[in-house]
Amino acid sequence: MARLIKSVGPMDLRAPSEDRFAALVRSIMYQQLAGAAAAAIHGRFLKLFARGLSPAAVLKLPDGTMRSAGVSGPKAAAITDLARKMADGTVPLHDADSLSDDELVARMVQVRGIGPWTAQMFLMFQLRRLDVWPVDDYGVRKGWAAAHGLKELLKPREMQPEGEKFRPYRSIAAWYCWRVVDTVLPVKLEKARVAPNPSKPKPVKAPLAPKARNSKPGRAPLAPKARKRS
Length: 230
Description:
By secondary structure, the protein is mostly helical. 44% of the residues lie in helices and 0% in strands. It folds into two domains: 112 residues, Endonuclease III, domain 1 (Orthogonal Bundle), CATH 1.10.340.30; 64 residues, Endonuclease Iii, domain 2.
């Protein structure tokens, strides 16, 4: 991990959103989508709210409005459920700073479409919790395998004990695992070394036989003429 940190440089997180509801909506929007596609749909979604995004504003949208902006049916249902449960106090976030990671995850997964992964991303990037270890994240598992020269990715249950050595800063370890996936490193890490290719011997061409005199392709050589006797 020390070599990885030296190669990638200091940890750099995007600024958290000022609105925690908006941050959770963004997390839902980005589920299972490439960044560019998610950003485009998210941008169209935000344009639906001239006076700003809020749980009340979401609940006032006519049926089908989110779908017209490109939001899928399941995600529209998840955003509506989040707005409803925040509005009625089922999933409050104003006291998030006083709750443990496990308590927050247990609260947020009550919302349709929010699972442990979405809750963990909220903890890491919005609340800046430093000891989150998202073992179900494919990028973390892939980065860990690449950094340690593993041919196969560890399963989530196998990844769990690997993070214990980084407590209470497992979020930082996860962030650097992500960077392995999207960063070209100057050296291979740990044992992930590539053996040099042995030089291949150059093929030796057989020497061509000398051409017979007075011969042409496809014809036998002519016999020498006999001398006339005097």
